[in-house]
Design a protein that fits this description.
It is built from twelve helices and twelve strands. By secondary structure, the protein is of the alpha/beta class. The protein has a domain at 3-225 and 256-282: Rossmann fold. The model has no long low-confidence stretch (mean pLDDT 95). The radius of gyration is 20 Å and the shape is globular. α1 crosses α8, α4 packs parallel to α6 and α9 (287-297) crosses α12 (339-355).
């Protein structure tokens, strides 16, 4: 059976990508920056049959900027690159945000370009590379975005933001978020350039797909020490279950996808040797809506969920942009899960983990 190299296997999305490939019969080689999480990952309950059958292997490849994939990539059929720092701090842009994202992506793709066994490469991208982030999302009603669109912020814009001490006229996003989205855009552009240069140099043929995900939610299966510090996707959702009087955060990234559907998108991109960008979005959502759904799904714990303003969803009033997902549905045949399934399965998992002492 075929083998895939998966970078950053300890992440929320990557853990599900690994499981998806394993369930389809693939052998998975997952990479780690250090050996500290190796035993925890091998102990993930969902991975047990694949660890026992020798289908899951882990490689310590070092930092994103200087990762060594020489051994891990040998003879694999495909590469899925999910590893990227999710850093929203306001530190110096090029060192703290750009370098890890850019060098992490190019090092993996350059390794893939050198190994003739690699036929497909998939990179986890983001809506951050696509959206019109110069404007507030709730002033963009009527705007339709697709795979041809790009985040208008440039490297020069980020440098100026640093020079200005982080002072920005952006109506909604703090500097750290702008830095993150810009770094993901530049990393994606570098990926396309790497493929183009590899072909010009007479290298072997390999497809490149970028899965541009929106906010990803769902049940975590990766090793966690805390639900409140389990990564952005888990933290913001779990925060809705900390008491009925706890305020609900504004929904600034207004579209979502279930983590299992995002994982399936990565798998389909590999097996179809897909080429191009693919917006991976189930549709608009609001944190208020998620709280309302959860309150109805778990009536015995209804008082746990933030009350907020039931029924008031900002993507409806005042509205927001539209992200077209026609391409991925047509080419990959993906039917996105409804938000009710995502919310129910996520909180079911959260409550299971609470019983094990996590909070």
């Amino acid at each position: 059976m075929p083998t895939v190299l998966l970078t950053g296997i300890s992440g929320f999305l990557a853990a599900h990508v690994a499981l998806n490939f394993l369930e389809h019969g693939w052998t998975v080689r997952g990479t780690l920056r250090s050996p500290s999480k190796k035993d925890e990952i091998l102990a993930v309950p969902e991975y047990k049959p694949y660890v026992e059958s020798g289908k899951l292997h882990l490689f310590v490849t070092g930092s994103l900027e200087n990762g060594d994939y020489t051994e891990a990539i040998k003879g694999v059929d495909a590469v899925v690159h999910t590893a990227s720092p999710v850093e929203f701090g306001d530190a110096e842009y090029r060192e703290s945000h750009l370098a890890p994202a850019l060098q992490g992506t190019t090092s993996v793709l350059e390794a893939a370009a050198k190994d003739p066994s690699v036929k497909a490469v998939v990179v986890t991208g983001t809506y951050g590379s696509i959206g019109k982030h110069t404007e507030h999302p709730h002033t963009q009603k009527g705007l339709v975005l697709d795979e041809k669109d790009w985040n208008p912020y440039t490297l020069e814009d980020m440098d100026k933001l640093v020079e200005n001490g982080g002072k920005s006229d952006n109506p909604v996003f703090p500097p750290g978020v702008l830095f993150y989205m810009s770094s993901k855009k530049e990393a994606e552009l570098a990926a396309w350039k790497t493929q183009e240069e590899a072909k010009k140099n007479g290298g072997h043929d390999w497809s490149l797909a970028v899965i541009n995900c929106v906010m990803i939610f769902g049940p975590p299966i990766q090793p966690l020490k805390s639900l409140s510090q389990g990564g952005m996707s888990t933290e913001v959702l779990y925060a809705l279950a900390k008491g009925k009087d706890v305020p609900i955060a504004p929904t600034l990234f207004t579209h979502y996808v279930d983590v299992r559907d995002a994982a399936e998108a990565h798998y389909q991109a590999v097996v179809r040797n897909a080429q191009g960008r693919f917006i991976t979005s189930a549709g608009p959502y609001d944190y208020q809506e998620f709280a309302d759904i959860a309150r109805g799904q778990f009536p015995e714990q209804a008082d746990r969920f933030s009350t907020g303003n039931p029924g008031k969803y900002a993507y409806i009033d005042p509205g927001t942009y539209t992200l077209k997902n026609d391409k991925i549905k047509k080419e990959f045949g993906i039917q996105f899960r409804p938000k009710e399934d995502t919310v129910k399965d996520a909180f079911t998992k959260f409550f299971e983990l609470e019983k094990k002492g996590l909070n």
